[in-house]
Amino acid sequence: MSNSSDRSRLPISGLGLVALLGWIGLLVALSWWMAQQAYRWLPVQASTAAPLVDGLFSFETGIGTFVFGAVVSVMAWVLLKHRADKYDESDAEPIEGNTRLEVIWTVIPLLLVMAIAVYAMRVNTKLGVLGPMEHIHLANPVEDQGGYAVDRLPAEQVEVIARQWSWEFRYPSANVSTTELHLPVDQPVTFRLVSDDVLHGFYIPAFRLKQDVIPGRAINFNLTPTREGRYRLRDSQFSGTWFAANQADVVVESSEVYQAWLENAARQPLQSGLSDAVIEYGERKQLKNPGWATVPPAPPPQVNVPGSNSLPHDA
Fold this sequence. Notes:
By secondary structure, the protein is of the alpha+beta class. The chain has 2 domains: 12-82 and 100-127, no CATH class; 130-139 and 148-303, Immunoglobulin-like (Sandwich). The chain has helices at residues 2-9, 14-37, 49-81, 99-127, 255-266, 276-285, and strands spanning 130-135, 157-163, 166-171, 176-178, 181-184, 189-195, 200-204, 209-213, 217-223, 229-235, 247-253, 271-272, 302-303. The strands form 3 sheets. It has a 6-stranded mixed β-sheet. Strands 5-11-10-7-8 form a 5-stranded mixed β-sheet, covered by helices on one side. β3 (166-171) and β4 (176-178) form a beta hairpin. α2 (14-37) runs antiparallel to α3. The longest helix has 33 residues, at 49-81. The protein starts with a helix and ends in a 12-residue tail after the last strand. It is a multi-pass membrane protein. It is found in: Cell membrane; Membrane. Its EC number is 7.1.1.9. Belongs to the cytochrome c oxidase subunit 2 family.
């Protein structure tokens, strides 16, 4: 009994313990380095949410690196130190389970998962970007003579309308509609997200925020841009054939430039907005073999300012 108990304890010499602690320290240093590198893999930070999300991603990268390194290290140690000789065909020595080791490899993953969960819950609480959700009836919209919904938006909000396959942004305070989203820097904004047809995804990588746009629902979504520049809004949900082309520019600018843009946009007549899907669909219809059947894109929205989808953007 004593011999079996001694084997299960797997005693480590002093030199071996020093080597083990040194290797663990090296893994910790490598994990910290990888966690710092993770920030470089992401787009620029352009909202108050971005540092929080990036911090969580960095934390998870560091933990993942440590776990991966530890598992690979154990596998390498077993392969190099405990493999059988080349012509050894005998059975391995029967060894009973090591309770202490089993407790260790159960507790450590539990603590790591709980640490990630607690960190993620804290980030989610700080973000607080999702507001109340309400049911809407798109079959019978209530609109005024200008085509804007009545009693739907306070002045500080922007209505975002997703379609197959274009985006439209309405500013009720200025009675402006556009297919290019403009926002003032360092000013909180609340979006009212609606879909005219299917499920879409409102996703701006530089802001690190994504929200599904659900048909029949109006969802309030809050964010604060913190960096001037031109970014890209993408449809993160598969909404049909041209969902990848369902993109729009997001321009973050100073409050003075933003107000000047609003005033100028309000003086512009309505015209067709941007819709790459409509252009591509028209080109495809001209082909002798247009390919598979698809849903025709919705007509381009009538807007004051179409904007541009060919200018360079940061993310």
